[in-house]
Design goal:
Elements lengths: L12 H9 L12 H12 L2 H14 L3 H25 L5 H9 L2 H36 L12 H14 L6 H12 L2 E2 L2 E2 L4 H16 L1 H27 L14 H6 L2 H8 L15 H30 L10 H8 L3 H35 L18 H17 L3 H28 L17 H16 L1 H8 L3 H28 L3 H14 L4 H25 L5
Antiparallel strand pairs: 1-2
Helix pairs in contact: 2-10, 2-13, 2-15, 3-12, 3-13, 4-12, 4-13, 4-17, 4-21, 5-6, 5-17, 6-9, 6-15, 6-16, 6-17, 6-22, 7-8, 9-15, 9-16, 10-13, 10-15, 12-17, 14-15, 15-16, 17-21, 17-22, 18-19, 18-20, 20-21
Amino acid sequence: MEKNTSLFRKKSVDQILKDAHSAEEGGLAKILGVRDLVSLGIAAIVGAGIFSTIGLASFNGGPAVSLLFVFTAVACVFTALSYAQFASTVPVSGSAYTYAYVAFGELFAWIIGWALILEYAVSNMVVAISWAEYFVSMLKGFGITLPGWLTMNPVAASEAFHKLQTSGQATLTAYERLAAHAFEVAPRVGDFPIILNLPAGLVTLLVTALVYIGIRESRTASNIMVILKIGVVLLVIFAGAFYVKPENWSPFAPNGVSGVLSGVAAVFFAFIGFDSISTTAEECKDPQRDMPRAMIYCLLICTVLYVLITLVLTGMVNYKELNVSDPLAFVFQSVGLDFMAGLISVSSVIAITSALLVYQLGQPRIWMTMSRDGLLWKKFSTIHPRYKTPSFATIVTGVVVAVPALFFKMDFFVDLTSVGTFFAFILVCGGVLYLDHTGISQRSKFRVPYINGKFLIGGLFILAVGGILLYGQDTLKEWDALSASEIIEHKLLTIIFWITWATLSYLSFRYNFSSLPVAGILTNLYLMTELGSSNWLIFVIWLAIGLLIYFGYGYKKSKLAA
């Protein structure tokens, strides 16, 4: 048989469905309904974002961050509709990886799969570290104090100790004093101090064990934790509303648009869970009907909750006080409701566990799908004969998440998560344009509502350029002051954004593209421009490692190669 050597060899929808049905040992158990999918989506979205990173975003942007949640949610709705169309067309595990295989070919599918591995792994590291902070805080409420060297990452402890040596005690924050003390008293092997975030590592291994045992047990645990979580969030909103002082909402955007947009990574991190629903497609009873509904329902519910809780937090205390890791508990402590603060700390531990659970469900299923296609080692697609879960991939996921969670800082991971996610979202939106253009959309049971972009996309582009020329003098002066190397370092993505918009304007005019997927591409790309360049460097290194694996193994072993 002649070999297919193209880097962009594609899988047909029929071929993907056939491969999924013929998966070894009977495949995965189909037990999830629309309510379970919504629950899993809420479990992922209402997690570390609402319990921790929302504080940092509010500190940077003030009460106006509530509008950023709306803007980000709109971007996610465009993307969710695109995911929903793909999920109804290709109802198998693999999420954006599988969709890219159909639309763009194998090389793009590998890149997206590799980016998703980063997204899920890094997301769970953040969630595990956030869980550990709330867990340690909860134990203190019960009078139990763990040694500092068992609850801290060694990087923070080392930095705090060196700051103490060079600048003195007076310059340290309360957290840095704890970190420096942990460094001093930690047991040592030779000159090397033993410092690790033990709770973060242990909870990851425990959740991995639950995910390994089965989807039914994971579903039950997730549903229970989601009910509790939504109850806590509603309690915070209704109880906190009585302590809101409207003067705290003024000024509404104290640091202007730039201050609000600086929270993009933290806010977007709060939303990235909805795509994890699509990784459970093969365990869904009727994925073509239930997937689209679940994605839209959970996005709407979570956006309303996020906006309300941001307004309550910034109304209860001044936004300048919210740069804390546990903002929900903090605001109730600040108004003297220690009982509520304690209740939130206990509930947060359970709530964040559910987010950890969903991400640990998602990643092994992407590895499993890549392995089925021959791009990863066959062991990753092994299905446990009794538990009906991807057993080996689940164990590897647990190790990959638990080890970094023991030793790294949370802020290192947040922006990095968003880079991979934006990348996947843009390709999924672009993939829907491909489905429409090639006619594959005719077999989709759910389709993104069609709004002809022939004149709309180009017209909006002309208006945007005109608006900048007329009203963006400050922005133009800022660009004028930059050297060529500074523009490449700091503004390259912005240039790519405008080139992409111009290109899509032309293509929309020529091919009558649907406006909503195009809007999804542009909003995600714009949000990407707000992320730091250092995150892009790490992401590029990650992709380079992935391409080495692909060309060293996957390209030759791919089932499409035969």
